[in-house]
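Researcher: Here's my situation. A collaborator sent me these components and asked whether they could plausibly form a single complex. I don't have experimental data yet, so a predicted model of the whole assembly would be a useful starting point for our discussion.
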Amino acid sequence: MSREAFERRHAGDWRRAETLLGELEAGRRSAAAADLPPLYRRVCQHLALVRDRGYGADLEGRLNRLALRGHEQLYRRSGGVSRRHFADFLGRDFPAAVRREWRLVLASTLLFVAPLLASGFAVYHRPELVYALMPAEQVRSFEEMYQPDGEVVREADSDFLMFGFYVRNNVGIAFRTFAGGAAFGLGTVFFLVLNGLFAGAAGGYLTGAGLGGTFYTFVIAHAALELTAIVLAGAAGLRLGLALIAPGRATRRQALLAAARGSLDLVYGMALMLLGAAFVEAFWSSATELPDAVRYGAGAALWVAVLAYLLLAGRGLQRSA
Amino acid sequence: MTANGTGPLLDSYRQVETPEGVELGLRIAGPPARFLAWVADTLIRFAAYIILSMPMALLGRTGAGLLLLLLFASEWLYPVLFEVRWRGATPGKRWLGLQVVQDDGTPVTWGPSMLRNLLRFVDFLPFGYGVGLAAMLVHPEFKRLGDLAAGTVVVHVDPAATGQGVVAAPPVPPPVPLSSAEQAAVVGFAERLPRWGRERAEEIAAGAEPLTGTTGPAAVERLLGMANWLLGRR
């Protein structure tokens, strides 16, 4: 069959496919949508014939494009996140993922806590060391922030400003900690150690300056969510790094692909935790009018809740197919 | 364009086999197009920030907080939203005619899109996408680290059919039976003929001298005639 005859015979089908795909791509529901699968199969058939018989690159290109568009419409996966999906994630998948990666979580904890304690003790005994990590203005602003006398109650809208700031700052750091794992884990290690040193230095300096009371009442509540989230981000990043350093039987590419897919649960979960931490930090932590005992108590309760959630939630529940 | 029975082609054209048993062709996009799309996206985000910061300023600190949240979203989430909900392309990519698809040709979903955009941070090191560019130049499918981790690839969306087809000419039957690869070559020559200058066309047609028996303009005419004959305009 000549090309002209072929085109004449099938042009009707191709025109119908093009109109139908145009409608579907514009998001309009089409009454003829049920025609797409048989039309698509026919277009694929024609494409194969055109290639085989050498009818020309322009016709092949046109049918290739048509088939790609049909393929896109038919094979899109339902990427929606249903409520049930979300509930499953929070109640089972995320804590289970944390427990599954416990070795990496442990490593990440060590990489964070060890520098934290070290710098904390060092700065407590030698306050001048803090200037190795922070510029002088930042140290001064810390001191001002945590003065025990008459902390000005923040107005509601500046709470929101702080919320925005914390989200951008903390989630950004956590994302970078995770992403740094793709550099053979070095980026993750770098961020964990740096953040640990920084946090420890701040704590050590303020405790040494006698401002520990204000500082700890402020941070204890949101630290439960924030520090654990940073550790989890580190664990996810270490998983990427490990895939590149020790891919095992797979090639590095395959190992990276599998590790990245597997670390998504951790990434989503820690992002949510940081959102919660920003919320707590912006709207609760500055409630200086509450007595210290209440703030310490609430903070401790939040720590217990977070740890219990990660250790216990979803145990024994089957993961549905 | 593939030809049957030849060795691997030096091309950024990749074929994906579908469940229907046919192979769909993807044209992989290279660094220049992707870089331009990124520049366009950055400008768009910058412009949106400027435009939105003015009404936000009126809302005082709440507005400032909203602006920070917006900045966060535009830094990390802007590409994800567009890639998943807008058929695989941010506005910058759409302008350049690019699309993000998964390795098997299916549209991107949330997971891969988040991964490839989170890893932008590493790809951007040390500055200006240095790592990403290095990865793209080394990988046969121009994948940066984010693409490798997410299993995605950036392709050109084929423009709507530009084919002027083959110019009509008196059909000339080939002197010998041609294999399908040779037929495809003759037809391909005729299709590309309008794009070449006269000397270039003669230079290429000279390579088919055993077939046409002449050189120069006559060879071009003969090849064009053979192409018409092969296409069935007899």
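Model: Some features of this prediction you could bring to your collaborator: The mean pLDDT of chain B is 86. Chain B is about 55% helix and 10% strand.
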